[in-house]
Amino acid sequence: MxxxxxxxxxxxxxxxxxxxxxxxxxxxxxxxGEDMTRFLVKKxxxxxxxxxxxxxxxxxxxxxxxxxxxxxxRYDVTDWKNVxxxxxxxxxxxxxxxxxxxxxxxxxxxxxMFELGREEDLNYVDEMDEYAISELFEDYGKLMVxxxxxxxxxxxxxxxxxxxxxxxxxxNLHQYDYxxxxxxxxxxxxxxxxxxxxxxxxxxxxxxxxxxxxxxxYVRKKAELLVKMNRLQDANETIxxxxxxxxxxxxxxQRLIDAGELKAALSLAEDGNKSDSGRRTVWLEIEYDxxxxxxDRQNQQNVCRELFISERGSMKNYNRLKKLxxxxxxxxxxxxxxxxxxxxxxxxxSIEADIYVAEHDGERLFRxxxxxxxxxxxxxxxxxxxxxxxxxxxxxxxxxxxxxxxASRNMGAKHYTLIRQSMNAMQKxxxxxxxxxxxxxxxxxxxxxxxxxxxxxxxx
Length: 460
What we know:
Layout: H1 5-12, H2 15-28, H3 30-44, H4 52-63, E1 65-69, E2 74-78, H5 80-99, H6 103-118, H7 127-148, H8 155-168, H9 172-175, H10 181-192, H11 195-208, H12 212-228, H13 232-241, H14 246-258, H15 262-275, H16 280-294, H17 297-310, H18 315-324, H19 327-340, H20 351-358, H21 362-369, H22 377-383, H23 392-409, H24 413-426, H25 432-446, H26 451-456
Helix pairs in contact: 2-3, 4-5, 4-6, 5-6, 5-7, 6-7, 6-8, 7-10, 8-10, 11-12, 12-13, 14-15, 15-16, 16-17, 17-18, 20-21, 22-24, 23-24, 23-25
């Protein structure tokens, strides 16, 4: 049968065109408008049926798989790109349901998303999809909290949702940091439970968690809630009980500092230093800041000295000490400090060398560069040119020896580039250009069959 002109036009029309026409027609034709409203209310605002289509779409999306692996080991895994695509579409529908007053359907959709997600192992997620998955579950979490806040949600549904989130804490969604379930759980509790119920649940979660950071957050939330309930003594006792947690101790120290109780804050920091030696530098830094607020320069100096030694040297504390120690005492103080400190040296960096550069002490810089623990090309490249000129011949001799040894043990473009860079650095030392030229001649004679090497040193 031949298509009518209307049939042909309908094939061209978009969904937006049809929605616009139907909406305008309903406004001018009362009976049609009422019939359409009844139909849509029955389908979308029915407390039991409003979410059925969306739930089915989510479930089918999680059933859709893709094949990963190699020719010997292949696996069918969840197609997360499709889950994100379908999940985003369903989320928009759920938001519209919530706006129209069907919070029950919106909550059903949100909880189903988390039920499906918490069963996934997430071991084969493409790195490119990780952010999108995280964002999707964050948005569904917000939907869940907003739906829970609706007055029409039954308490039994609220309790089931809380129970689901508590189980999800142990899932890979939380363990792999796709979403902070504990944060979502606290928000869901606040939206759906009485203060007393929340307190009991926080106590349960505090007993169950094995993460120090999570326990600290639970303690904070419990104390905040107790203050909100005007149970100030209980809040203070909670904080006191958990002062062994570094985060809680730091919070309390900051509270005391803000209140101007510097001596009490200092006492807490000192106790932390004694009982928590693994975080010694953390507590010393806090002590330093408190002494600064007190204007106690001598104790600042003492603490800073401890920090310098504990950290095996640091330019930050060297600079602090230089401002705190009187100029006439500085030279002796520094040498004693360096003697007491087990300094570190790496391939390219030495705090001790940095200090002698800052002190313009080329003589002592030369002495440490001649030590075996400072015999690396990276250290010589960075510091040798700053040694006093009278020591140039000795430095160049060491430089040449190290470069010859390096070339004898290493082949390949990246090694030849490193040798060329070191020879460039060597040229900045008095007499270095001639030494670099002679070394290049040695390399050309010894390694003539290494064309890449010859190209790198061609300009010397």
